[in-house]
């Protein structure tokens, strides 16, 4: 059955695709560098070292923007927010793939690593897999109860599932946000969004620098809600001031300027890292507002990237498992101390192609079944 999109804004899937591909690029280079394999770039290179988290921040801003806009739309249309439907829609979209990847990480990856010597070719992954300290009951429970972000900040790395930390952040965000929008009036909502935007970076800075005691410090740094708050502020103004937003975001000059500024700030350290992250995220919000404006003649529209954005959740979740499979096989048949160009010429296409193929099959034959239920039984707007 073909999935019918109930609500759609042009341009968002292309941005999702870019975010997911940036995360994959970052993790390939991270694995190359840590394992002393050939790296196309020095990991000290600011762009490569931070492009993965910038991709995640783009996901966060997108989530905050879209969820807030949809919740405001539902509240305006129905005079309420159907919380049960909201939570069930999130569950049907996110939980099936999350727990499937969790099962791969807990069951399949350790079985492969301990029964096939080829996986010893990737020392970092292999040592993490066979070292039970990295899993443990506590670590597994964190992942099982949808707190992979807390697990990661607590030192519980799980090969094939640690990337899900950002999914945990978004799920925890979804628990709070609909309640704020449901019970607060229009004027209070925007003040709360702005307050969270300012408070969370300060609290996280204090937690990272020892001013907040454990375990509250770990909890604080693991929920960077200010990135979603940035998106939510954009969603608020797009909902209540749509004509004004569209008037400014149709400018070709503004769109080009935003893109150039993003390229600058993701490539060059201009401010402290905490400030730079916020600047980049604000630029991401501006990019989103421009990208959804069909009146802007130069915004990025591409069918291939729109398709990748559609399956971007799978790309994000599956790519570390694909890396776990691909790196040992390449290292087995092509020694990494040989030509680095050839090595990466093999690594990159294999990881990207296999990840995209698995993500497509997963979306078509697995995720779509739950999306159909979500959209047929729990429609809101």
UniProtKB/TrEMBL annotation:
Keyword hit for Secreted: no
Pfam families recorded: Acyl_transf_3
Domain (Acyltransferase) ranges: 11-363
Entry keyword annotation includes Calcium: no
Membrane-spanning parts: 7-28, 48-73, 94-113, 140-167, 188-207, 219-240, 252-272, 278-294, 315-335, 341-363
Enzyme class: transferase
GO terms, biological process: polysaccharide biosynthetic process
GO cellular component term of the entry, any: membrane
Enzyme Commission number: 2.3.1.-
Alphabetical UniProt keywords: Acyltransferase, Membrane, Transferase, Transmembrane, Transmembrane helix
Sample GO molecular function, one term: acyltransferase activity, transferring groups other than amino-acyl groups
Stored InterPro entries: Acyl_transf_3_dom, Acyltransferase_3
UniProt name for this protein: O-acetyltransferase OatA
Species of origin: Flavobacterium sangjuense
Lineage: Bacteria, Pseudomonadati, Bacteroidota, Flavobacteriia, Flavobacteriales
């Amino acid at each position: 059955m073909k999935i019918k999109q109930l609500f759609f804004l042009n341009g968002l899937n292309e941005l999702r695709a870019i975010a997911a591909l940036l995360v994959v690029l970052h993790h390939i280079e991270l694995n190359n560098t840590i394992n002393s394999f050939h790296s196309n770039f020095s990991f000290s290179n600011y762009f490569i070292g931070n492009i993965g988290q910038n991709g995640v921040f783009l996901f966060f801003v997108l989530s905050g923007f879209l969820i807030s806009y949809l919740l405001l739309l539902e509240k305006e249309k129905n005079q309420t927010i159907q919380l049960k439907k909201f939570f069930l829609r999130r569950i049907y979209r996110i939980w099936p793939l999350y727990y499937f990847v969790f099962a791969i990480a807990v069951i399949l990856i350790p079985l492969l690593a301990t029964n096939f010597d080829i996986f010893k070719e990737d020392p970092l992954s292999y040592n993490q897999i066979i070292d039970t300290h990295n899993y443990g009951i506590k670590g597994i429970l964190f992942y099982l109860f949808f707190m992979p972000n807390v697990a990661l900040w607590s030192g519980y790395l799980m090969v094939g599932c640690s990337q899900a930390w950002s999914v945990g952040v978004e799920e925890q965000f979804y628990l709070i946000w609909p309640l704020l929008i449901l019970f607060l009036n229009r004027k209070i909502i925007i003040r709360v969004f702005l307050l969270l935007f300012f408070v969370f970076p300060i609290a996280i800075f204090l937690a990272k620098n020892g001013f907040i005691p454990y375990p509250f410090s770990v909890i604080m740094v693991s929920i960077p809600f200010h990135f979603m708050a940035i998106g939510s502020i954009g969603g608020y103004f797009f909902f209540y001031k749509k004509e004004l937003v569209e008037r400014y975001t149709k400018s070709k000059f503004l769109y080009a300027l935003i893109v150039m500024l993003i390229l600058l700030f993701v490539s060059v350290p201009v401010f402290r890292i905490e400030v730079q992250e916020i600047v980049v995220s604000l630029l991401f919000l501006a990019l989103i507002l421009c990208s959804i404006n069909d009146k802007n003649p130069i915004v990025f529209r591409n069918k291939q990237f729109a398709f990748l954005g559609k399956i971007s959740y799978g790309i994000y979740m599956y790519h570390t498992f694909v890396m776990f499979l691909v790196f040992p096989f390449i290292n087995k048949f092509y020694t990494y101390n040989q030509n680095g160009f050839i090595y990466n010429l093999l690594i990159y296409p294999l990881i990207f192609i296999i990840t995209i193929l698995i993500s497509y099959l997963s979306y078509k034959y697995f995720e779509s079944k739950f999306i159909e239920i979500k959209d047929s039984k729990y429609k809101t707007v």
